[in-house]
Specification:
The complex is a heterodimer. By secondary structure, chain A is mainly alpha-helical. Chain A has 8 helices and 1 strand, in the order αβααααααα. Chain B has one domain: Cytochrome Bc1 Complex, Chain C. The longest helix of chain B has 32 residues. Classes of the chains: A mainly alpha, B mainly alpha.
């Protein structure tokens, strides 16, 4: 009995010098094409367990926070009594802060419009796939992001503080028309702040991806600076104060 | 009857088999079927790479945003049982929720803090996707859906902001909608369409309410489904495409 060859060898006698593999021809690409030995696991149950853990964790966090902090409810709405300060919700307060420094058309329409268009076009402006799936792309990319973040934070804080101390609106009230003092000038200053890191990177032969990293970081960090300034540092009359010395017992956190 | 034979009998029953079209998911075939034969699970891939499960890559920000959206729908529906979108009744119903309704204040807290957290997490999710280069081909379209979802999330939060009809709500919406009116030509018309008048009043409250409880959540739910399904179609998380 043991001397017989296995049945499969009788049906398909193997050539002694060749090696065999089971293969299939497929059209197009799948997620795993060209990935070498696959390092995958079945989504069931690990992904569902992870999602369950996140569901419970997130609910618990919101649950505990809701026990500690009450949602605010002020007096009934009264169109005849303006609150001081009157602030937009926190995610729009960056725009409100911007409105303090320039013409409403620029701050309320053009800049947010440009940002949304920039976000939508981003994948088409930068399509090299070299460093997909890696945080900041490379060590150099990481340095670009850190550098731009520090630069933007300093420039935008300086812009808010300086424009607050020496307001372009007031300085040029009688010498220049509004569209220059409130439009071209602040717009030009901001454009310069945004363009500078991109120019520096271009001179250093940076890749398109690195320029995009810089531009996105300028946008992201500016949004944070303007939001924090509007939310925490603006008090009655929408004037700048340090958060712990707000006049009239105003607490910015009450308006969350 | 032993426990295992009872389980076997239940899973072999006509009723069970009409619910679940796969066997015990302890083998590759049934584990695949468990994902593909369930409408919610089928948005996921059947198999995922180990690197895409790494916490420090995605921080779970997308899933967390979706979870918060679920929490918002849940608590929002509870609040809808009491809330009346009229300028006479809105504020008193808020007071009732606070003082009379069992767990009313707590439900409202959950809704408000989840809303703020969702806006924050959606923004962070976008930053994560950008900084990992995950918006590049073939994921451009899903990035755009994501940008639209960010705008819808802001819209959902903003429309909800007016509903308590207190001073905070009224003046935040007045300031917010004033920004919209600066757009040349269409600005004032857009503001009037949104408010149903020149000022924040009854029409504005009703419009914001309808947008908040029906239009925007439905759009978000639809696009979130498309967004997650598209992640699978584009080959899972971008970390799989690492060179």
């Amino acid at each position: 009995m043991a001397t017989h060859a296995p049945v499969s060898d009788e049906i398909f006698p193997k050539h002694s010098t060749k090696t065999y593999a089971l293969a299939e021809l497929v059209r197009g690409e799948s997620a795993q094409v060209g990935k070498g030995p696959e390092d995958t696991v079945f989504a069931f149950p690990i992904v569902l367990l992870w999602e369950g853990v996140l569901l419970l964790g997130a609910t618990l966090a919101i649950f505990l926070f809701s026990l500690l902090k009450q949602a605010p409810l002020e007096e009934i709405a009264n169109p005849f009594v303006t609150t001081d300060p009157a602030k937009a919700p926190w995610y729009f307060i960056g725009l409100q802060e911007l409105l303090e420094h320039m013409h409403p058309l620029l701050a309320g329409v053009i800049i947010p419009g440009v940002l949304v268009v920039f976000l939508i076009l981003l994948p088409y402006l930068d399509h090299a796939r070299a460093d997909v799936g890696v945080w900041f792309g490379s060590a150099r990319g990481k340095r670009v992001v850190t550098g731009t973040a520090v630069y933007t934070a300093l420039m935008m804080i300086a812009y808010i503080v300086l424009d607050n101390a020496f307001s372009l609106r007031e300085l040029l009230r009688d010498t220049a028309p509004q569209w220059i003092a409130q439009g071209v000038l602040p717009g030009g200053i901001l454009a310069l702040i945004v363009a500078l890191p991109a120019l520096v990177l271009r001179l250093q032969n940076a890749t398109r991806r690195e320029v995009m990293l810089a531009l996105f970081t300028v946008m992201f960090v500016s949004a944070i600076v303007f939001t924090v300034s509007g939310f925490l540092f603006r008090g009655p009359g929408f004037k700048l104060y340090v958060p712990w010395q707000m006049p009239g017992g105003y607490n910015p956190w009450d308006g969350l | 009857m032993t426990r295992s034979s009872l389980a076997a009998q239940v899973t072999a029953s006509r009723m069970w088999r009409s619910f679940f079209r796969h066997g015990m998911p302890d083998n590759p075939f049934d584990r695949s079927l468990a994902m593909t034969s369930n409408i919610f699970f089928h948005l996921h891939s059947v198999k995922v790479s180990r690197s895409s499960l790494r916490w420090s890559y995605s921080f779970g920000l997308g899933i967390l945003s979706a979870i918060l959206f679920g929490a918002l729908v849940w608590t929002g529906i509870l609040l809808m049982f009491y809330y009346v979108p009229s300028i006479e009744r809105a504020y008193p119903t808020m007071k009732e929720l606070q003082l009379v309704v069992p767990l009313g204040q707590f439900t409202r807290n959950m809704h408000r803090w989840s809303a703020h957290a969702m806006v924050l997490l959606v923004i962070l999710h976008m930053a994560r996707v950008f900084y990992t280069g995950a918006y590049k081909s073939p994921r451009e379209f899903n990035w755009i859906i994501g940008v639209v979802l960010l705008l819808l999330t802001l819209g959902a939060s903003f429309t909800g902001y007016l509903l308590p009809w207190d001073q905070l709500a009224y003046w935040a919406i007045t300031v917010g909608t004033n920004i919209a009116s600066y757009a040349p030509l269409a600005g004032p018309t857009m503001r009037e369409m949104l408010l149903g008048g020149s000022e924040v009043g009854q029409s504005a409250l009703l419009r914001f309410y309808t947008l908040h409880i029906a239009v925007l959540p439905m759009l978000i739910a639809l696009l979130v489904a498309l967004h997650i399904w598209r992640v699978r179609k584009d080959g899972g998380l971008a970390v799989n495409d690492r060179e």
